[in-house]
Design a protein that fits this description.
- With about 325 residues, the protein is α+β, with helices and mostly antiparallel strands.
- The chain has twelve helices and nine strands.
- It has a seven-stranded mixed beta sheet with strand order 1-4-5-9-8-7-6, sandwiched between helices. A two-stranded antiparallel ribbon has the order 2-3.
- Helix 5 crosses helix 10.
- The longest helix has about 35 residues.
- The two termini are about 70 Å apart.
- The structure holds 3,4-dihydroxyphenylalanine.
- 3,4-dihydroxyphenylalanine (DAH) binds next to strand 8 and strand 9.
């Protein structure tokens, strides 16, 4: 009797068909009125008493096995009919193609991250800006050359595409009370002929810190921290006196050339130094224009070009590459976050 169970079990396991008639025949041969499993149930009463328990258990398992096999074959035969001709389930999946981040986004995020560590928040302003925020509040004299048609894309007499992110300084100072510690990344526009070294739009990050007793030493220390974090611990900085209408005193910041380590190469034009930003103490006139009392508060500001930093980090020497969307260029930044 137990032999019969195992023979039928083998039959069930080895049976395969997708033809619904064949499956139905198979079902009848097992579970029909005269089917082999039904037959075993009839013979149950002839099983010796001490084997009844085990036999009953195995017989039930056999019945369940038969039922579930038949169900499975039935459902496959149904689904095969509908999909066989169109879908190949054995085909390997296509690998997902990952994109890469734009180098300007990568560098922008890095800069934000470095300043976030020392408490700077991010603020943004509009790219279409009025004369007050882009020029007048920043202490640009009426006849300043930067207001000239050659540099600025004017929309009308009052409005223009912002020429720098310093405009966001003004907006922040007008709207917030000191202490203010913020950086402002964004796109800026200048009416320049496009070449390897100039473009009609590019990106800047502006920085601003206003509080009581802020000094030039604070500015220097912050920029030293920033440049070391960005270019490496061995980086040195130097400040050269300069002029901007909105800062007094003003300076330009050079970092030791990260490519030759300061020894001199064609990137730093054999000087060992690279200019990366303008900076200075916020001019008291600018504070007053923004309703901040220059007798109580002082502050520093700085501004840098993101393309310039990316150029130094990745040695990209043609500005046009950043906006041409050539995949051969963009794909090189795949490994970067
Ligand atoms: N706005 C300047 C530019 O576009 C950069 C700059 C220089 C920003 C000095 C500043 C600063 O905040 O203090 O060239």
């Amino acid at each position: 009797m137990f032999d019969k169970i195992s023979t039928i079990k083998d039959q069930i396991v080895n049976f395969n068909s997708s033809d619904s008639n064949e499956i139905e025949q198979f079902r009848i041969s097992l579970l029909g009125k005269k089917g082999s499993i039904t037959n075993l149930f009839t013979q149950f009463r002839n099983v010796p008493l001490d084997e009844k328990k085990e036999f009953g258990k195995q017989l039930n398992l056999l019945k369940n096995l038969a039922s579930s096999k038949i169900e499975e074959l039935k459902s496959n035969s149904g689904s095969n009919k509908a999909t066989k001709s169109t879908i190949d389930f054995s085909m390997t999946a296509q690998p997902t193609v990952l994109g890469s981040r734009h180098p300007i986004s990568i560098v922008k995020e890095q800069i934000i991250e470095i300043f976030a560590q020392i408490g700077f928040t991010v603020s943004e302003g509009p790219e279409i800006e009025d004369d007050w925020h882009n020029f007048t509040a920043l202490n640009f004299p009426e006849e300043h050359p930067a207001r000239d048609m050659q540099d600025t894309f004017f929309i009308n007499k009052e409005m223009a595409l912002r020429t720098h992110t310093s405009s966001v300084q003004v907006r922040v100072m007008e709207n917030e009370k000191p202490p203010i510690r913020t950086i402002s990344p964004g796109r800026v526009y200048r009416n320049e002929a496009i070449s390897a070294r100039a473009h009609c739009f590019f990106h800047q990050v502006e920085g601003l810190y206003i509080d009581k007793d802020v000094s030039f030493a604070d500015l220097k220390q912050t920029l030293l921290y920033f440049t070391k974090a960005l270019f490496g611990e061995e980086t040195k900085i130097r400040l050269r006196p300069s002029y901007f209408p909105f800062t007094e005193p003003s300076a330009e910041l050079d970092v030791s050339c990260s490519i030759c380590g300061g020894k001199g190469c064609n990137v730093c034009k054999y000087s060992g130094w690279l200019e990366i930003m303008g900076c200075g103490m916020v001019d008291p006139n600018v504070l007053e224009n923004c309703k901040i009392d220059p007798k109580v508060y002082s502050g520093y500001a700085f501004g840098m070009g993101i393309e310039r930093i990316a150029q130094l980090k990745y040695q990209v020497n043609d500005l046009r590459l950043y906006s041409e969307n050539d995949l051969r260029f963009l794909k090189q930044f795949k490994s970067e976050l």
